[in-house]
Amino acid sequence: SQQGEEDPQALSIQEGENATMNCSYKTSINNLQWYRQNSGRGLVHLILIRSNEREKHSGRLRVTLDTSKKSSSLLITASRAADTASYFCATNQGAQKLVFGQGTRLTINP
Amino acid sequence: DAGVTQSPTHLIKTRGQQVTLRCSPKSGHDTVSWYQQALGQGPQFIFQYYEEEERQRGNFPDRFSGHQFPNYSSELNVNALLLGDSALYLCASSVGAGHNNEQYFGPGTRLTVT
Q1: Are A42 and B4 within 8 A, CB to CB?
Q2: Averaged over B72-81, what is the pLDDT?
Q3: What backbone torsions phi and psi does residue B18 show, to the nearest 5 degrees?
Q4: Spatial CA neighbour of A107 closest among A5, A41, A4, A17
Q5: Does residue A21 surpass a pLDDT of 70?
Q6: Which of B26, B90, B102, B104 to mutate to test the interface with A (most CBs of A within 10 A)?
């Protein structure tokens, strides 16, 4: 069974708009990581946020973590066509075993 | 600096056959994890190798086995293939067994079982 659940399952926005994806999980974690996957190929690591962190930024990405609600969000600002991909959150429950959600399919329309 | 590499890229096998997939970790990484990703799903953890030993295992049958070599590269073996084994198999590498290390994924091997 999978730990995380992403919401929404699919998101379609216009280029230039912001995209927000949410992730919920069930158990205590050491960290939470977000990944991007293009066309069913390898996963690209986007950002890691530790359980004692609340917010982290990387370029156009902003990730928040609320351990009391067991949830995280990924915000992509000023979206581009190249951001079209599936986005996954993965929780690290210890010793680097990652538990993934089912992902959000993001489509950026030109 | 080479990233994680996997071979082959695609593979077609028949039910009942055996398959071996290969992974070379990113330079400087010593831990390799394997994941199975069915179509439309998120990756699922199969097992992890560190210091040539299986350290953790997910909910996969014994038909799935692996190996890590002294140069940290790894193999995933699947015996008695089933149609349900058709998936993208992803290898990820990282450093040590720490809890807060990023994992870098390879491009995957697409296995089709007919």
Answers
A1: yes
A2: 98
A3: -115, 150
A4: A17
A5: yes
A6: B102
Of A88, A95, A96, the CB nearest to B42: A88
- Beta-strand ranges (E) seen in A5-70 are 5-7, 10-14, 19-24, 31-37, 43-50, 55-58, 61-66
Give residue-wise pLDDT tens across range A36-74: 999 878 899 999 999 999 999 999 999 999 999 999 999
Locate B33 and state its tokens.
């994890």
Please give the torsion angle defined by the CA atoms of residues B101, A56, A74 and A25, in that order, rounded to the nearest 10 degrees. 60
Q: How many CB atoms lie within 10 A of CB A57?
A: 11
The β-bridge partners of B13 are B113
H helix or E strand, kind and range, residue A8: none
Task: Name the residue facing A96 among B4, B33, B107 (closest C-beta).
Answer: B33
Q: What pLDDT is recorded for position A3? A: 58
A58 DSSP β-pair partners: A61
- Which of A31, A99, A100 shows the shortest C-beta gap to B100? A31
CA atoms of B83 and B98, how far apart (whole Å): 36
d(CA B52, CA B69): 6
Contact at CB, B48 and A96, closer than 8 angstroms: yes
User: Cα–Cα distances in Å, from A89 out to A1, B18, B83?
Assistant: 15, 32, 28
Name which of A76, A71, A106, A107 is nearest A89 in CA terms.
A71
* Contact between chains at B103 and A45 (C-beta distance less than 8 A): yes
